[in-house]
Amino acid sequence: MILDTGAPLTVIRPDAAEEIGLDVRETPSAHLVGVTGSAPLSRATVDAVSLLGRTVRGLAVVCHPLNPVLGFRGVLGLNFLQHFNIRIDNDSETITIEFRDE
Fold first, then answer.
1. Cα–chain-centroid distance for residue 5?
2. How many domains does the chain have?
3. pTM of structure
4. pLDDT digit string, tens, across residues 18-73
5. What is the C-alpha to C-alpha distance for residues 58 and 60, in angstroms, rounded to an integer?
């Protein structure tokens, strides 16, 4: 998974969704529109997603066939990242992720 502070939702490839037992419906339930065009996609809910020991439960995700050549199986979007404080330091080329008190 990669971090994408510009993505409002978390995205997972359909093959990865099936591997973890998500119900990926054949009928699209949403439509993705981006700079390269648009595509139908399905929505699902993940029981739990963990990052550095912090778990987010009941996370809404969309399933989209991301190109496997890119080397990642999904995108952690803002609906997941909002549970963390993230600092990107371009000068030192570091990303710091801290748990947000909820």
1. 10
2. 1
3. 0.78
4. 888 887 665 456 666 666 667 777 888 888 888 888 889 999 898 888 877 888 88
5. 6
Quick check: 80 pLDDT over 90? yes
Q: Give the sign of the dihedral formed by CA 42, CA 43, CA 45, CA 46.
A: positive
Q: How far is CA 56 from CA 32, 66, 75, in A?
A: 24, 23, 15
CA 43 to CA 60: how far, in whole Å?
7
Range of the domain at 29: 2-99
Q: Edge-to-edge strand order for the sheet containing 10-12?
A: 2-3, 74-76, 10-12, 54-63, 37-51, 30-34
Contacts of 82 (CB under 8 A, 6+ apart): 100
DSSP 8-state code for residue 69: G
Q: What is the pLDDT of residue 22?
A: 81
Q: CATH no. for residue 74?
A: 2.40.70.10
